[in-house]
Amino acid sequence: MEELVALYRSRVARFEREAYAPRSLAAARALLDAAMRATTPEVFHQYDLAGHLSLNAAIARVADSEERRAVHWDALGETVRAAPHHEVLRALASTPPASEDALVSLVSRIHQQANLRIVADEELRERAWSNREALDEHEVVERGEVPPAWRSEQARSLARKVDEIRALFRAADANLAAFVPGWRPPWEVLDAPRHRLRLAWSDGERVERIRRFHAIVGGA
Amino acid sequence: MPIPDAIAGAMLGTFRAMAAEIDAKRLSGPAVDELRTSLGRMESLAQQHSDIAAFSGQLAQENLMGAFGDAYGRALSGAARAEAAQPGGDTKLLARALEAYEQALAVHRGKAASAPLVRVLEEILALGRSGVSYLGFCRELEERGLDRALDGTVPLTRAALVDELGLAQQAWDRWRIVGAERELAWLDAAVARSGGAPPDALAVTMASLEIRHALEPHARAWSLAVHRWERAIENLVDWLDAHASFAPTDARWAGDSRAATEHNLARTRAVNPGQLAIRIELLARSGIAWDHLVEHETFRWEYTARRIGLSDERLRLVFATRPHAVVGGSPPRELVARAEELHAAGRHVRTDAGRAPAPGTPLATLRWA
Prior knowledge:
The structure holds two protein chains of two kinds. Chain A is mostly helical. Chain A is built from ten helices and no strands.
């Protein structure tokens, strides 16, 4: 039993040093307390309520870690990335898993489902940004003043640029729609702080670019 | 028509092998049943679909790979728990753990970048073989911070960051340099704050993400600005050159016939000035006034890094051309003559272009004379 007490004591000391693990600290203290009161492993097992305290400790570790991640993404304004961490915290608080297997399943199920939403959300931003030069070229041809003799040729050139951009989007949209049924680019989402902060267009230019995306490729 | 066997094999092979491993271990129970159900559904979808994107999309929508991995983990951990509960289970757990550390050591031994990690692994193995019990082993790992040294991989991260900084400096990559410098400064400060103990892995990851997140818009704005002025300069070079005597034989305008080449030349002469006005407007949206371009940090950086392919003489000619580039206008004869002269002597290009100077070389820029 001394070994078990020593193990839990060192774990408590560690969580005391780590200010960001309050639940883990409380759970480790409960285990240490049970180990100190028990005289034999069998008695400890009773105090541990057949693994209940150990399971609580595992849940606490997960909850502390999820909370740190949630706070981190919230601070960056990344609400879509923060969402599954909040969801795990809510699920753990409302119906604590009955086993470590159930805990692992719960966490992985929530994160896997969220991954599709994260991919679709960030795909929109990255696709918009990766078309920055194509949109510049589109604007240059569309607005550049040319002598009358060249206007019809420039109009054809503009139509080709539109076709090129559309072709790129058609292929990518088909891929994304396979993962997210009915997906169409929701361009206005680019105005959300998480995207606005990471796109390097000024506010005015971003609004203009969203309008241009709608005009060229359409959207949700 | 089903997904071709070779492709289904590439996509599902790992899962088939994992299921075979479970069979070989003769495991059973609800987790094993779930795992088989998931694999069965994946196999059946491979038969139903012919389009690979639709197939992988449905796998993702039904979360079949995730469900499989989850059931697989539970099947194995259930077996390990059953084994540990038997007499002598602790000894087996210790042996398992040491086996895993040995495998990790075999992967990292002999790699220069892994030296700090190898030291930690060797210390862990020495501890495990010292006759300590499994519980004693776990406690010592925590007390000596050995689990964190592995988990935080901080020694590796620092070595990798120093390498990254060196590479970014060699490449004259402005924002990569700033990122690596900030990550290193954060790491050193965190280690100093905790009295030399490495920060945990999650703290390192989050700090790194925060730093990159903050720099990303700057890096993106920078690259867009560079692209915009490069295209404006190119527009002016082409416009002036399109009036030169060498233009009809220059690859930029080569068409299938003489008439086609002439048409291409006429287009550049007619169209470029109007488009230049828009390019200069785009540049202004990136916060750069054309008349002050050479003083802008992006220009000075690219100029010093020798990534601008034009010679100083040619660049000065570009700026001299700008006032004449108006719709319906033509460049003065003396500017065309200068372009012809530079071109003939090969003095239009920068001779040391592409050869980056030593990292830290002070920034320079184009001088007007």
